[in-house]
Amino acid sequence: MRTAAAILRKDLLIERRTLETLPGMALLSVMTFVIFHFGLGQDSLSGQLAAGVLTVTLLFAAMLAVNRLFVAEREQGGFDAFLLAPVDRTAMFTAKATALFLFMVALELIAVPAFALLLAPPGLGRSLPAFLLMLVLADGAFAVIGTFVSAIAVHTRARDLIGPVIGLPLLLPALIATASGIGPLLTLRASGSPEPKWLAVLALYDLFTALLAIGLFDYLLEE
Amino acid sequence: MSTHLRHLRGLTIATAVTLTAGLALVFFYAPLDAEQGFVQKIFYVHVPLAIVSLVGFCLGGVFGLVYLRTGKRVWDMRSYCAIHMSLIFSVGGLLAGSIWAKASWGHWWVWSEPTLVSYLIVILLYCTYQPLRFSIEDPERQARYAAVFSIVCGAFVPINFILVNLSVQYLHPRVLNLQGGNMPNSMKLAFYVSLLGFSLLFATLMKYEMASKEMRIETRRLRRMLLGEDPAGPLVRSASPS
To answer: Is B13 part of a structural domain of the chain?
Structure first.
């Protein structure tokens, strides 16, 4: 646990000093909203369409972070140092997944208000708690699968390609659940409570993928 | 001689016989479907292809797990060939399903159909298997990463089907439910024989592929030895186990 905390602290410190990932993610998401506005030719979206636009935007922004997650580790020999240290290898996964989760939350602090400002219909305040709950669960899936895929992709030649190409189909169940779950919340007459089915699906998917990834992560670090 | 060549002739004959018997049953014994008529016959090809390919994907994951456990390269070869064959079968199954959908529902593609959609997602996922392997040069690392991928995706297959099923309403005919479906016995017989035939076809083709791959590796090694070069040879970039 202390190892994971140390790696996480290092990653957050690097991000704070270099600002390599988060501003890019935020910029990309706002740009995507603008593109969607012109592409769809609508001033405000609601319901399933709004949910789709938001989910896709977050997904693409997440892919930026996924591509960068292990790059520093590989280029500056962090992997070798970590493998030499007598510590549990799962710590690396825990730290990276937590970092990615925090990146996603930070991104949403910018992207969701931007979405509300630019595209969402007014008067959705009642749905906010359920909406945020769904987003946090979706971030869990992004974090777990993103970290796993990033660890695979970082050792390949075409890592910018391999990461998203494997990550997208693996994330699809989570995306289906997120989009279907927040769709009804983004309508004007929303009841404000999420559909328990999608909450359960997302939570179970997070749990399942986390267990699988923790079980297999060791094999991705071996030299 | 490669171990994969054992039983190959017997297996090939059994496959040919079962497939022929299956097709004969389909065309001459199973009754015409009351609603769909002759078009329904594609069911005896489409469903076995789909089932065999999905089982093959999961099998690839199991082989991958054994590879990670034992470290023996033959399991990597098995995992690779199982996934490779499944991918071919699944594309066949998707095409057959599309033809059936066009004939019975009037559309080549139906989004409201969870089984079709989840099948497409699974195929898209496994399409990345070869690019992944190809982009890793070190053979040992390639095998290990491919095994990890195959396990995750093998577990993903059933999960994905459950999830997509949740999101859409049923339309696809349920032929294999717990009550044994609602087919008459003659149809059931034809279906099970052709399912067996396609499973045997899968096993045979997989064995042939493994035999041919190992033969190629062996030939290359022997040729290099004859020429007096290093038997291991230079690293060749390849998606398949080498």
So the answer is: yes
B152 vs A156, A172, A216: nearest CB: A216
| pLDDT tens-place string over residues B88-135 | 999 999 999 888 888 888 888 888 777 788 889 899 999 999 999 988
- Residue A218's contacts (CB-CB under 8 Å, 6 or more residues apart) are A89, A90
Domain range for B173: 3-217
Over the stretch A187-215, which tens digit does the pLDDT of each residue have?
A: 877 776 777 888 888 999 999 999 999 98
Residues 6+ apart with CB under 8 A from A135: A58, A108, A112, A178, A182
**What domain count does chain B have?**
1
Nearest to A170, CA basis, from B203, B151, B184: B151
Q: What pLDDT sits at residue B107?
A: 85
What is the pLDDT at residue B58?
Answer: 93
CB contact under 8 A, B149 and A152: yes
B4-33 pLDDT per residue, tens: 677 888 889 999 999 999 888 888 887 777
The pLDDT of residue B232: 67
Task: Give the DSSP per-residue string, B105-169.
Answer: HS-S--TT-HHHHHHHHHHHHHHTHHHHHHT--SHHHHHHHHHHHHHHHHHHHHHHHHHHHHHS-
Residue A9: CA count within 13 A, CB half-sphere: 6
Taking the C-alpha atoms of residue A97 and residue A66, their distance in angstroms, rounded to an integer, is 10
Q: Is B168 on the interface with A (CB under 8 A)?
A: no
- Phi and psi (nearest 5°) for A69? -55, -45
Subunit contact B131:A165, Cβ cutoff 8 A: yes
Read off the CATH number of the domain in which B60 is found: 1.20.120
* CA nearest to A149, candidates A207, A51, A58, A66: A66
Please state the ipTM of this predicted complex. 0.86
Q: Are A180 and A198 in contact (CB under 8 A)?
A: yes
Residues in B closer than 8 angstroms to A164, CB to CB, are none
User: CB–CB of B163 and A219 under 8 A?
Assistant: no
Please check whether residue B215 touches A, CB under 8 A: no
Q: How confident is the model at residue B144 (pLDDT cuts 50, 70, 90)?
A: very high
Query: Nearest CA to CA, how far is B134 from chain A (Å)?
Result: 9
Residue B121 included in any domain: yes
Residue B129: predicted pLDDT? 92
Answer yes or no: is B66 within a domain: yes
B98 assigned to some structural domain: yes
